[in-house]
């Protein structure tokens, strides 16, 4: 179906190839999962299948990639459009029309399908992916999970043999991610589409995979999932748990792990306490924020505590970003009172703001405006009146491998996050607000990130992290606030919050329930 | 009637017909009637979509045009007519600016002429605004003939990227504030422009990649003769249109013929080009009798006004009379308010 024959790819003017000597065949109707560290070339491998590499990106491709018998050397992406469906990392960025139905029809229009065929295929796809109720909706009004399903639907209406997906669940809340994965599984089962998918968050995905392609140092091969998940740092918690317990075979799903964990569940467990913190850092009192006629926050009461990491969870559109914006003072509440210490955050500017609040947006590059890491650090030292070099030193404490002359946009996702933190923490702020920081971070990157936040919290900082990543929250969180439809539905310590709801339970907890164990490390103490 | 979108071409023909009528009459009653008809139809058939909010913007713009036109007449107007109203202190300009007067006596005739000329332009603007808030720009671009498909896609992309750039600007400005840097002033704008441009460029590249993988720009192979034929037709046609327009404006008899031949050649060139693009259309907006009615009432109003009214303002001023035929035809252009299918209802949250 998809055959790579001795493929080597090098970007223009790069000395080292991204991947070298790749030989592999993905059989028809299988689901192959591409894993690897951030920047290891996962997207490159995916885009070799749809022809974007090298036709769109440039660079030199040696060897041969055959998709359904078509050579990507002689077939540009548009010629492969009927054979390969592609869903990029950000589905919103790839939408070319404005309503669901038209988006689904777009590829077929480009390929010149007959109108009655198009009509039939669109109806079938609406049913297959559960989109029928959304058919006339403008794409802007859809939630993240719905947008992702529309993007997948738009990629399959033309009846491709191969579907390529780049991190389809990384931006989604747990429930929406489950829906998208269920839709992908249905495509594999019902339509026998060959799916090639890259993902960082393997915890939900790996059990669906028939094969794993692990990229390391430019090399990769097709491996059996159970074998491929051992012996490197890219392991979901359930695999790490299985390895730590010496289970054989290593479980890939919660279900198989539960079978092997029967003894473990009867052990006695005294839960180690998490940080409790002290009141009085920041408060949001009876606060309402509306956009048009919809309430983004409705009468929210939240107290932030110093020396504590609070995870802010909830569906896409539940009001997480709005709460962060209100605390950062970028959005004034329509009703209610927001205070960081005694200050109204909307009135803070310049130095006063930097001493109170650090903020890292979803896309950390929004914060950068010079052309090098050194430039950003020097600007920060200048702005905060600190000794030259102190921001750079702080950055090197977080990541020691950054070349100061790199352009900030060329850094990996983890390095960008580190740079954003190094800049924003210059004036030792009281609260740190992070909006979806772990998007695009691999497991080692998340471990490092967790370490940074832990040391900040131990130093007395109050940290608020909006995230969908329950595994991250299980490891670093002290307290969890869950928003739904603009209201606080849960405000509890992390153990209570994550053990009481199946949607937010981390993998280890699912395996060891009813014991309130959240992480692999805690499980090892049993 | 079942709710559906009216063909955007019908709304534009209707609006341009009314607009053409407005430019061809100096009768303030007819102009007022046109504005009233446009406003009525907009209020009856405007969909609840973001782009449909264009009408009030155009109305404000139209009022501004009238104010500016009358203001200029007061300040710089050359004295016309005999009904003096008031006298502004006049400034004598140096020799080399002879012919321009500042201030001086203002007559009623001057004000009326300025008002009517402003009102013509304002009415045209209001008609364009009506079309903008009745017909979805995206649907209009989709209705273009296949030969203009690539132009249409460029338009759609521009329309969808513009709001995204605004979102990027807002995001980057928020981030700047959080870095403790000023968000106002020239320097702030210059510094913020870098991340804004970078992220907008990223958006554009992502979109281009997505469109490429979805078959955009795929063309069937064509013979060189066909390509030469197409390019030749379009080029010669365009030259014909240019020469024709020139001749028409110069009131030469050959102009109309040249214009017609040029148009025909350009159109057939576009049709030939369309054959190269193997594209089909999903559920195109149908053209039924409501479309025909809408377009016909607009064009009818234009024809009636051109036939029975004059764009010259006669002095001395007289109270305008209402030419019955033109007025009736303009009123007929209000029929789409009731006789077209209403637009689809917007999606609502539960």
What's the arrangement of secondary structure elements?
The complex is a heterodimer of chains A (526) and B (350).
Chain A: E1 2-10, E2 19-26, E3 31-36, H1 42-50, H2 52-55, E4 60-67, E5 70-71, H3 77-80, E6 84-87, H4 91-94, H5 100-111, H6 115-128, H7 144-156, E7 162-166, H8 174-191, E8 194-198, E9 211-215, E10 222-223, H9 225-228, H10 237-245, H11 254-260, E11 278-291, E12 294-306, E13 308-313, H12 320-328, E14 335-340, H13 350-356, E15 357-360, H14 373-384, H15 390-398, H16 413-424, E16 431-435, H17 443-458, E17 462-466, H18 470-476, E18 479-484, E19 487-493, H19 494-500, H20 507-512, H21 520-524
Parallel strand pairs in A: 3-8, 3-9, 6-7, 7-8, 13-17, 13-18, 15-16, 16-17
Antiparallel strand pairs in A: 1-2, 1-4, 4-5, 9-10, 11-12, 11-14, 18-19
Chain B: H1 8-23, H2 28-45, H3 54-76, E1 84-91, E2 102-107, H4 108-134, H5 137-142, H6 149-178, H7 186-213, H8 224-249, H9 255-276, H10 289-308, H11 324-332, H12 336-339
Antiparallel strand pairs in B: 1-2
Helix pairs in contact in B: 1-2, 1-4, 1-10, 2-4, 2-11, 3-4, 6-7, 8-9, 10-11
């Amino acid at each position: 179906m998809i055959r790579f024959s001795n493929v080597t790819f090098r970007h223009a003017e790069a000395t080292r190839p991204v991947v070298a000597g790749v030989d592999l065949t993905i059989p028809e109707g299988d689901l192959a999962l591409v894993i690897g560290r951030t920047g290891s070339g996962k997207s490159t491998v995916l885009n070799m299948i749809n022809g974007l590499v090298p036709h769109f990106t440039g660079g030199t491709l040696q060897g041969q990639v055959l998709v359904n018998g078509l050579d990507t050397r002689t077939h540009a992406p548009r010629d492969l459009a009927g054979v390969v469906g592609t869903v990029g990392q950000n589905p919103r960025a790839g939408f070319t029309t404005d309503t669901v139905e038209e988006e689904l029809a777009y590829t077929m229009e480009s390929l010149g399908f007959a109108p009655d065929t198009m009509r039939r295929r669109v109806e079938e796809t609406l049913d297959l992916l559960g989109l029928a109720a959304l058919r006339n909706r403008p794409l802007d009004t859809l939630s993240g999970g719905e947008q992702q399903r529309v993007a997948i639907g738009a990629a399959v209406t033309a009846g491709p043999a191969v579907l390529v997906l780049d991190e389809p669940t990384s931006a989604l809340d747990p429930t929406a991610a489950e829906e998208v994965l269920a839709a992908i599984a249905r495509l594999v089962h019902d339509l026998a589409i060959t799916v090639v998918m890259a993902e960082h968050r393997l915890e939900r995905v790996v059990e669906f995979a028939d094969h794993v392609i692990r990229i390391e140092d430019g090399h990769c091969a097709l491996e059996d999932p159970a074998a491929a998940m051992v012996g490197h740092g890219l392991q979901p918690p359930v695999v790490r748990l299985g390895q730590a317990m010496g289970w054989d075979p290593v479980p890939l799903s919660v279900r198989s792990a539960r079978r092997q964990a029967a003894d473990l569940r009867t052990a006695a467990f005294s839960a180690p306490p998490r940080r409790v913190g002290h009141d009085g850092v920041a408060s949001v009192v009876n606060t309402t924020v509306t956009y048009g006629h919809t309430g983004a926050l409705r009468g929210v009461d939240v107290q932030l505590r110093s020396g504590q990491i609070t995870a802010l969870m909830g569906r896409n559109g539940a009001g997480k970003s709005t709460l962060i914006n209100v605390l950062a003072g970028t959005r004034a509440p329509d009703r209610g009172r927001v205070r960081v210490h005694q200050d109204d955050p909307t009135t803070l500017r310049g130095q006063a703001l930097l001493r109170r609040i650090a903020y890292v947006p979803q896309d950390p590059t929004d914060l950068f405006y010079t052309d090098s890491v050194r430039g950003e650090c020097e600007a920060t030292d200048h702005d905060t009146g600190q000794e030259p070099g102190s921001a750079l030193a702080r950055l090197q404490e977080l990541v020691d491998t950054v070349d100061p002359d790199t352009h900030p946009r060329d850094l990996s996702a983890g390095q960008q996050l580190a740079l954003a933190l190094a800049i924003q923490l210059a004036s030792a702020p009281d609260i740190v607000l992070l909006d979806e920081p772990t998007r695009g971070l691999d497991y080692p990157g998340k471990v490092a990130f967790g370490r940074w936040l832990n040391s900040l919290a131990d130093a007395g900082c109050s940290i608020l992290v909006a995230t969908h990543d329950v595994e991250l929250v299980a490891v670093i969180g002290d307290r969890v606030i869950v928003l739904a439809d603009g209201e606080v539905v849960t405000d509890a310590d992390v153990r209570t919050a994550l053990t009481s709801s199946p949607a937010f339970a981390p993998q280890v907890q699912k395996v060891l329930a009813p014991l309130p164990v959240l992480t692999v490390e805690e499980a090892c103490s049993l | 009637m079942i709710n559906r979108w009216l063909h955007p071409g019908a709304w534009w023909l209707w609006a341009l017909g009314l607009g053409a009528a407005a430019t061809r009459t100096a009768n303030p009653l007819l102009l007022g009637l046109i504005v009233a008809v446009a406003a009525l139809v907009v209020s009856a058939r405007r969909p609840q979509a973001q782009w449909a909010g264009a009408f009030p913007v155009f109305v404000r713009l139209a009022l501004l045009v009238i104010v500016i036109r009358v203001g200029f007449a007061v300040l710089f107007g050359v004295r016309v007519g005999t009904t003096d109203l008031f006298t502004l202190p006049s400034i004598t300009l140096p020799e080399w600016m002879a012919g321009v007067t500042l201030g001086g006596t203002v007559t009623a005739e001057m004000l009326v002429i300025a008002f009517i000329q402003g009102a013509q332009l304002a009415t045209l603007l209001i008609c364009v605004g009506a079309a903008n808030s009745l017909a979805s720009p995206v649907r209009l671009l989709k209705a273009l003939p296949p030969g203009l498909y690539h132009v249409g896609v460029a338009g759609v992309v521009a329309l969808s990227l513009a709001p995204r750039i605004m979102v990027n600007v807002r995001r980057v400005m928020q981030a700047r504030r959080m870095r403790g840097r000023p968000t106002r002033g020239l320097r702030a704008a210059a510094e913020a422009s870098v991340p804004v441009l970078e992220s907008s460029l990223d958006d554009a590249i992502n979109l281009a990649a997505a469109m490429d993988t979805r078959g955009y720009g795929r063309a069937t192979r064509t013979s060189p003769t066909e390509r030469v034929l197409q390019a030749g037709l379009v080029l010669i046609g365009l030259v014909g249109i240019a020469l024709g327009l020139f001749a028409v404006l110069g009131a030469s008899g050959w102009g109309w013929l040249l214009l017609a031949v040029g148009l025909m050649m350009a159109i057939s060139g576009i049709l030939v080009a369309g054959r190269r693009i193997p594209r089909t259309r999903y559920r195109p907006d149908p053209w039924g009798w409501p479309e025909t009615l809408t377009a016909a009432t607009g064009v009818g109003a234009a024809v009636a006004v051109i036939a029975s009214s004059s764009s010259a303002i006669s002095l001395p001023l007289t109270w305008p009379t209402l030419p019955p035929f033109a007025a009736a035809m303009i009123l007929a252009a209000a029929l789409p308010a009731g006789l077209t299918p209403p637009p689809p209802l917007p999606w609502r949250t539960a």
